[in-house]
Amino acid sequence: MKKFIPLFFFTVAFAYIESAVVVYLRELYYPEGFKFPLKLIPSNIGLIEVGREAATLVMITTIGLIAGKTRWQKVSYSIFVFGIWDIFYYVWLKIFLNWPESLFTWDILFLIPVPWIAPVLAPITVAITISIASMIVVYLENQGRAPLAGKKDIAFIIIGAIIILISFILDFRLLTDGGAPDNYHWEFLAAGELIGLWAFINIIKK
Q: Can you give the residue ranges of every domain in the chain?
């Protein structure tokens, strides 16, 4: 469990870098403050931004592979880093820009493979859930009680994750058509969280 401490500080620093990039982008394209509808940016900048997001995922995955010894640890450390990074990304933006105004402020979360949009509370909820779950898994394994995941359990976790993803991307065409989001599908988020938690509880019971 001691690895979570350096991983935490690494991730907080990594989130600082990520949020700093967003500060620069907003200064260039949204000097009056970020808001929807999205502004068109040069295609080369858009491709670089997509590449930056892909590189971020590679870095997060690599940290887990380096830090973990077992399969469970590698996955758990990667998930932990992703969750803490997402939380502190918004913490730093709040410090730098006093944004978001509230947890219900809309944000564009990701661009791969299509734009993800949701109120800030939605990704933070997921981030907190997966961070805690990852710590529980590593703790149990260190106690000699490694979780046992059957194909059915893994399938339900994947289904839950897909439902949550759908809540983020269901209305992406609204953005590409120059619109502004106004109705998030909280029911999809709740369903995905509940399905994932149910499967996770079944796994750790084993």
A: 4-205
